[in-house]
Design brief:
The chain is mainly alpha-helical and 218 residues long. It has 6 helices and 2 strands; from the N terminus they run ββαααααα. The chain is elongated and about 150 Å long. It holds the Pfam family YjiS-like. This is YjiS-like domain-containing protein.
């Protein structure tokens, strides 16, 4: 029992402790004694407002930790500690679900719009084919002279009317009419040019004959 006033009875006194390696080394002496002051010096300076704790002196505000079967029973009674999900994580999960649902709805809306557009275009194309084929069938009642005026022949109309129902037969007739009418216009221009050339040649011949002196028979 230390005497009152001795260094060991003071709560601020430090007790040096001896560290020995396995095998009994190092030998006895004071050079291997590690003091708390040396440990404090190795720890470095304190942060502003921090308090250094001396391991040799227990803190007054630190509760003793229960050891043995009492602490084991308390830990077993409380059960395993399961961390509860934090509120930001729950918010993030909800936001992710909303984003996924909104992206799915947007893709579904785009797909539906594309399908409706394609279906509408197909319906319009079929209606136009049916209308054009009806007009082609009406051309069968025309005579050859009327068809020639638009650049067609009765054979062209019959071939167009015999094409499959999924094909727009008026396209072929339109191409044939344009080509034949263009050919007829080209032939008309060539004939006009030839006529002008012949007229110019006849005019030169008349002028030459008029300039030739007349000879009288004796």
């Amino acid at each position: 029992m230390p005497r009152p006033g001795s260094p060991r009875s003071s709560p601020s006194a430090t007790r040096p402790f001896r560290r020995r390696l396995p095998g009994g080394w190092p030998p006895a002496g004071n050079w291997h004694v590690a003091s708390p002051n040396a440990a404090i010096a190795r720890a470095g300076p304190l942060r502003p407002g921090a308090r250094r704790r001396n391991p040799a002196v227990p803190d007054a505000d630190r509760q003793p930790q229960e050891t043995g079967f009492a602490s084991l029973a308390a830990r077993t009674e409380l059960g395993p500690r399961v961390p509860a999900p934090s509120l930001p994580a729950m918010k993030e999960t909800t936001m992710t679900t909303e984003l996924r649902s909104s992206s799915f709805l947007s893709r579904l809306a785009d797909t539906s719009a594309s399908a409706l557009t394609a279906l509408g275009a197909y319906a319009v194309r079929r209606w136009r084919i049916h209308r054009n084929r009806r007009e082609v069938r009406q051309l069968l009642d025309w005579n050859a002279h009327s068809l020639k005026d638009i650049g067609l022949t009765p054979m062209d109309v019959r071939l167009a009317a015999s094409m499959p129902g999924s094909v727009d037969s008026s396209t072929r007739l339109r191409i044939l009419a344009v080509e034949r009418r263009a050919g007829e216009r080209a032939q008309a221009r060539e004939r006009m040019a030839e006529m002008r050339r012949l007229e110019a040649a006849a005019r030169r011949t008349v002028e030459t004959d008029s300039q030739r002196p007349e000879t009288t028979a004796c």
